[in-house]
Design goal:
Layout lengths: L6 H6 L21 H7 L15 H6 L21 H6 L18 H7 L15 H8 L15 H8 L15 H8 L15 H4 L23 H7 L11 H32 L1
Amino acid sequence: MDGNINILWEYQYSLLPLNSSDNFTDPDSDQVPNIYEFLNGTNPKNDDTDFDNIGDLWEILNNLNPLDSTDNVSDFDGDGMLNIWEYGNSTQTDPWDPDCDDDLINDYWEWTNGTNPWNNDTDYDGLLDSEELLTYFTNPLLSDTDEDFLTDGREVLSTLTNPLINDTDEDGILDGGEVDFFFTDPLNPDHDGDGLLDGEEVILGEDGYITDPKNADTDGDGYSDGLEAQWGTDPTDPNSKNELIWQLPLIFGISGGIIFIITLSKFIRRRKNLK
């Protein structure tokens, strides 16, 4: 023996029985040095000793039998994947573990549906693949299912918006726009309570003005933006007036005085008639 390899074994495979330097050479380039091929009984010049289409290295590392040509069609972990599939898929899953990433979804389902069986959050959105599939019904391959510029995890765990609807409060602004740009409440369609939807305030909409969706009275004239929109006045200009509207207090004041005088006169006449 030249070290730990039997001399007859070396002669069998035409190695160098008198030279210990070949202990760690790898004639078949399967990343299993000769010393380990000897210890496992594999052929140092064949990277798949049992011809089962699973490399010797993978079988050795995963506690399969590199001398058994039938274990390639076994399913030791019961996940629905034959060992040859566990070996042959792009992520090479563990043939003894039905759920390699512990996300409550077995490896076979992940393999056939495109999620990563070694990563419990395939799209890195902050939600487990199983949560997306079974609880929130979001896409585990897409970090922002509704394309509102908020990740699914952020919607579920932070903003409490609907990860399946890109405008949860239906105010005309995407949830991501409300949260990160306008800083309005994505759950309240009228953040400032002025009678105008937030989406109407941030564009030249039906009223023709862009107002502050966080300030009910953008121009500070004492009238809400919604009221000015109804009156047809400019909610961004405190000096904008609708003459009829602005005369209403005066009109109601005069009318009230007239009504008071008439009522008083009737009361006086009644008193006289009673006498």
